[in-house]
Amino acid sequence: MLKTLSLQNFRNYTKSEFNFSPKTTIIVGQNAIGKSNLIESIYLLSTGKSNRSEKDDQLFKFGKDISRVKGILENSDDLEVVIVKSDGLRKKYLVNGVSKRRVDFAGRMPVVEFSPLDLSIVAGEPGRRRKFLDEVLEQIDQDYRYSHIAYFKALRQRNALLNQVQESGRRDDKIFAYWDNLLIKNGQILKDTKIN
């Protein structure tokens, strides 16, 4: 459970702190005051990525070069995501002050976000349902999270190789076998994952 949340230069927040009830917290307010941004910051602490934006540079308060989201959980774990504009964009994930990779950061505070826009999960195309399930499974199963990342990395590499073959007309079967095996191994883990 999330006890406190601190935001610095995150979206429309300059510096804000929120305390949450151990039972239920209801967030109400007029339009455009930051309710969705608050939910986005909680999602960022849970998964290490935004639920609304593909680009991290959109998470900054206008004109600022650092954005920070920090939460304290009921077990006293301290989770923090820091995004800095400095020679590009850098994102740091911290657990109790110790730097982690996103794959090791995500899942410490599982959340499921469901909004009216997510009705397409039920009525829309299957790809939307799969994306939703992937996001949930990544939070609760570390093996799934590692395999999901490895699978899509291998898929991108293999597709890049296919483009090279198309341009050059030459194919190295050993390199293809390596990426094919990674796809098969990680795809099998993804396929066999069960929700308990």
How many strands, which pairing sense, and closed or not: the largest β-sheet?
A: 6 strands, antiparallel
Give the strand order, joined by hyphens, for the main sheet.
Answer: 2-1-3-4-5-6
| Fraction in beta strands | 15-25%
Number of domains: 2
Shape-level CATH architecture of the largest domain: 3-Layer(aba) Sandwich
Number of helices: 6
Mean pLDDT: 91
Could you give a quick summary of the protein structure above?
By secondary structure, this protein is of the alpha+beta class. It has helices at residues 35-47, 102-105, 120-123, 126-140, 142-168, 173-192, and strands spanning 2-10, 13-19, 66-73, 78-85, 89-95, 98-100.
Q: How would you describe the overall organization of this protein?
A:
The protein has two domains: 2-109, P-loop containing nucleotide triphosphate hydrolases (Rossmann fold), CATH 3.40.50.300; 141-192. The chain is built from six helices and six strands; from the N terminus they run ββαββββααααα. It has helices spanning 35-47, 102-105, 120-123, 126-140, 142-168, 173-192; strands spanning 2-10, 13-19, 66-73, 78-85, 89-95, 98-100. It has a six-stranded antiparallel beta sheet with strand order 2-1-3-4-5-6. β5 (89-95) and β6 (98-100) form a beta hairpin. The longest helix is centred in the C-terminal third of the chain and has 27 residues, at 142-168. The radius of gyration is 20 Å and the shape is globular.
Descriptive key words:
196 residues, alpha+beta, Rossmann fold, six-stranded antiparallel β-sheet, 6 helices, 42% helix
